[in-house]
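pasting for ref
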Amino acid sequence: MSIEAIARTSRERAEKRGATARRLLGELRPFRRDLVLALGLVVVGATAQAAGPWLISRAIDRNILQGDRSGLARTMLALLAVYAAGTLATRGQIVRVGTIGQRILASIRARLFERLQRLPLGYFDRRPIGDLMSRATNDVDTLNQLISQGVTQLLGSLFSLVGILIAMLVLNLRLALVSFTIIPVMLLITSYFARRARAAFRTARETTGEVTAVLQEEIVGVREAQAFGRTEENIAQFRRSNAANRDANVQATGITSAFAPAMDLLSTLSTALVIGYGGYLVFADELTVGLLAAFLIYVQQFFRPVQLASQVYAEFQSALAGGERIYAILDEAPEPPDPPGTPALGRVAGRITFDDVSFAYEPGRPVLRGVSFEVEPGQTVALVGATGAGKTTIASLIPRFYDVDSGSVRIDGHDVRVITRASLRAQIAMVLQEPFLFAGTVAENIGYGRLGATREEIEAAARAVDAHGFVATLPQGYDTLLGEGGGGISQGQRQLLAFARAVLANPRILILDEATSNVDTRTEATIQAALRRLLAGRTSVVIAHRLSTVRDADVILVVAAGRIVERGHHEALLARNGVYADLYRRQFRDSLVPPLGPDGVTGAVAWSAAPTD
């Protein structure tokens, strides 16, 4: 890399850090009044800290050495009042700033969650969920340490430092200047450690996100890991990620922990200077013993705020690294809102039209190419084809999870891009291969399909897909608590609850994406019968690899390489002996089906009569 490129990169990083710091400070803007009050309390605490050693010197010089017992009592009472006021002021500022900090963190978490909910699905296609979780938890926690505690410590340290410097200069200018000779060395050491800490904490935050991402992925996939004997490899992979995170944090801790001993050494040197030069001044009758004692206390107090400020600076570097990752999410463009005046889609009949649709998740890598078809209201269309052919992408374009690159998708003649998303998606229900069930009761999971549904409506939806039978056998029936992801019931039972949820939503268009792949043949037959009865007059789009589930579809679309290569009824497609027939033959094997005749038709006719499960 050239010198110019290195300089440009360093400048860009500095600008990014500066922008992040300004945004973090901007989070305090709505709490200006509370901050002014906290600042006033900080000033009181700093004044009390600076006044204490002066009162001690007064007690030594004017009371103890002069034998003034009553004066000593008055001075001690004044010292007690000063320290009491400082203690109360410090407590008040901690409570006030801590409250502000928690309100800011709550706001950031809420904005993060809201932005994640509104981001387009393409954003999640490119990023590990665990890393996003780490940003919303671990990175926010770094801000917690800074805003709730660090800001108070930093303000207190700065004002205390100013008060100490002023007091030392007023009491004895020459001794103060000798004491300050250590400051340039202190600044150099602080700058050196700050530069190293900044890079170390950024690496630590990034590796923490990687560990969380790996952890989330491996916990979700633990069943597959055990089934494929991948546990040892996964453990080794996690150990590598964990070791990288450990090393990054050890490096960051090592840098910050080395700073405190360096400050202690400087404090010792400064104390030695004060004792040596201050003792000389005492011998020369140019300084009193009380003032020398006050200077010794001031020197000790001088380095304490510096050490606290250095700790806050380390927290600030960690918070900057976390803040960059947080604002990277908040700066992501959400799913574009509906333009003002966009009409809502009323109740539809359910006609779906794809007109020369092309689409790519990434520019230059098309997934769909010139897809055109039409589904009449109440029809069932089946999408079949090899994995990666584009079936799920076609289904995802109907509720406008993504926008097409060219062509159009229309519902009842309305382009989905010129109607409100909410009104469009209110007409559609989806049941996926891996149904989403959350930690809650069975009734709450079914009721997710339509908020405000009554218990009778929920039970009716469950009965419609033959889920009521197994729900009734659960310990508390519909009030049985399910674990995260539907823990506690089988995969097929989870799928039945997802079907019940879709039925409760009462959609005009139903999309089933491999929705029956995890239920047994008997349950599948029951569901098919229920769906035929309940979805009469509704349009349904079925994606399935099990071709037995699509035999009764009104039309079958065979998708290959992002194009529709065949369409028609089950028997007609078998007779054509094309891609669909090949898929059928691969699925049911020659052992179950007579071989193709010379005309390529005889066997196909036999297949249509062969058992399918």
